[in-house]
Design brief:
Structural class of chain A: alpha+beta
CATH class of chain B: Alpha Beta
Strand content of chain A: 25-35%
Largest sheet of chain A: 9 strands, mixed
Oligomer: heterodimer
CATH superfamily of chain B: 2Fe-2S iron-sulphur cluster binding domain, sarcosine oxidase, alpha subunit, N-terminal domain
Order of helices and strands of chain B: EEEEHEEEEEE
Strand order of the largest sheet of chain B: 4-3-9-7-8
Largest sheet of chain B: 5 strands, mixed
Distance between the termini of chain A: 41 Å
CATH topology of the largest domain in chain A: FAD/NAD(P)-binding domain
Radius of gyration of chain B: 14 Å
Radius of gyration of chain A: 20 Å
Number of strands of chain B: 10
Number of helices of chain B: 1
Largest interface: A-B, 14 and 15 residues
Mean pLDDT of chain A: 95
Distance between the termini of chain B: 36 Å
CATH topology of chain B: Ubiquitin-like (UB roll)
Structural class of chain B: mainly beta
Number of domains of chain B: 1
Number of strands of chain A: 19
Shape of chain A: globular
Strand content of chain B: 25-35%
Order of helices and strands of chain A: EHEHEHHEHEHEEHEEEEHEEEEEHEEEH
CATH architecture of the largest domain in chain A: 3-Layer(bba) Sandwich
CATH superfamily of the largest domain in chain A: FAD/NAD(P)-binding domain
Number of helices of chain A: 10
């Protein structure tokens, strides 16, 4: 006998956990199936940026709403997610990039976001470690910030559990039985399960789940590697600082460790091993822009897998081919901030049939047009 | 305190021939030894104060893992002194919390 539930969520990352919480709040019976533990993959390995600036226009309203939710999240979930509005700073490395920033900031300001253009001097005042000669200016969004990725995942999972959601961790989905366009059973290493709605929130593994129901999900895994410094004074890296393009970013946890991250790279076979190449790339990049980090001890490094769609925005919504099958994946390396709002909107989609903010741009069928 | 005459290894052959500066005070050090060794030899036990309560912390694991011996060395905060060798004229400061960031 399959264990039955209202909603079966595959994947215990921030999307799965947030959705489980919002569904449980709306009195739905929920099971989350996670092959490892909660937040084991990208959701627990990311830099924890809670950012609105520099997003795809389709994501901007969602991120702005999500930031409002982040503000009260620790209180709502009764668990400290270490959210802090440290601001987000984009640094231009060329005149051309600065022009692109200007256009983007104008569009964002029209949408109601507080984004400021900065001269090189102002940029360096924000982030004193930057070398002024290397930069052309920047943009700054004061309402952007950071949170602790691991704590955020746990917070949602804990609150969802308290409302009755079941979490089956270390449980892998091995197959899905279909009959006439309907899901008959989801086979797992813990036996058969069934949900009226089955949510594919498996991140980089979403295409694997897709293949089980015979649909192609255009998501490619990419590896992103992070270096962690010793705890430093909080002025070392005050805002979340990004040099966009094929470069890097730096952010400081509230405990003082600075994380040095860089652009995700395509990877084979879900390999999240640490590479020397990435260490050397990010070390050189950091020394170029932040030479004062040259003497700072790096205490560890780790990598994680992000999931990329062809247009770098997620796929969210039901598919026509299989009744009750919903995709909530493909956040392309910047989904963490959207965790709270995405869970809320997708829960609305499941419970009420429509969401309070449009998810149209994230339609699965957009790639076929 | 230094072991001058070891029961098995015999008399010490090392000599404190260089000087390092700790909170403005000069102390002798043996070339090649770790900063924390020189500090212990000079009777300095408190290496830093904690972030939240300002409690004293000192040499603990001695192998770079526990981070209790972090000090500000030549303006770089949070350097693990148990695995960082001394150098002539090095300036070391007792660190309060995460120290200060001087670019």
């Amino acid at each position: 006998m399959a264990e039955k539930t209202d909603v079966l969520i595959i994947g215990g990352g921030i999307m799965g956990c947030s959705l489980a919480y919002h569904l449980a709040k709306r009195k739905k019976r929920v099971i989350v199936v996670e092959k490892s533990h909660v937040g084991a993959e990208a959701s627990g390995r990311c830099a924890g940026g809670v950012r609105q600036q520099g997003r795809d226009p389709a994501e901007l309203p969602l991120s702005m709403e999500s930031v409002e939710m982040w503000l009260g999240l620790s209180e709502e979930l009764s668990y400290d997610v270490e959210y802090k509005r440290v601001g987000n700073l984009w640094v231009a490395r060329s005149e051309q990039q600065l022009e692109d920033f200007e256009k983007r900031a104008k569009r964002e300001r029209e949408a109601g976001l507080d984004v400021r253009m900065l001269t090189p001097e102002q940029t360096c005042k924000m982030m004193p470690s930057l070398v002024k000669e290397k930069i052309f200016g920047g943009t700054y969004c004061p309402t952007d910030g950071i949170a602790n990725p691991i704590r955020a995942d746990f917070a949602f999972a804990k609150a969802a559990r308290a409302l009755g959601a079941k979490f089956y961790t270390h449980t892998e989905v091995t197959g899905i039985t279909l009959a006439g366009g309907e899901i008959k059973a989801v086979e797992t290493t813990r036996g058969k399960m069934w949900g009226e709605v089955v949510v594919n929130a498996a991140g980089p593994w979403a295409p694997v789940i897709g293949r089980m129901v015979g649909i192609d999900i255009p998501i490619q895994p990419k590896r992103c590697q992070m270096m962690v410094t010793q705890q430093l004074p909080e002025t070392a890296c005050a805002p979340f600082t990004v040099t966009p393009g094929d470069y890097g970013y730096w952010t400081q946890t509230i405990h003082g460790n600075v994380l040095l991250g860089h652009t995700s790279r395509p990877v084979e076979q879900y390999d999240k091993g640490v590479t020397f190449e990435a260490i050397s790339f990010q070390t050189r990049n950091t020394l170029q822009f932040l030479p004062s980090f040259g003497k700072v001890p790096v205490i560890r490094c780790y990598a994680g897998l992000t999931e990329w769609t062809p247009d770098a925005i997620p796929i969210v919504g039901f598919v026509k081919e299989i009744k009750g099958f919903l995709i909530d994946a493909g956040y392309s390396g910047h989904g963490f901030c959207l965790g709270p709002i995405s869970g809320k909107l997708v829960s609305e989609l499941i419970v009420a049939g429509r969401s309070s903010l449009s998810l149209e741009a994230f339609d699965y069928y957009r790639f076929q047009q | 305190m230094r072991i001058e005459d070891h029961p098995i290894l015999g008399p010490s052959k090392v000599k404190a021939t260089i000087e390092i500066e700790v909170d403005g005070k000069k102390i002798p050090a043996v070339p090649g030894e770790m900063i924390s060794s020189a500090l212990i030899a000079a009777g300095i036990k408190v290496l830093r104060r904690t972030v939240k309560k300002g409690e004293a912390r000192g040499y603990y694991c001695g192998i770079g893992q526990c981070t209790d011996c972090m000090m500000t060395v030549d303006n770089v905060p949070s350097v693990r002194t148990c695995i960082t060798p001394v150098r002539e004229g090095m300036k070391i400061r007792t660190q309060s919390g995460h120290g200060e960031w001087e670019v």
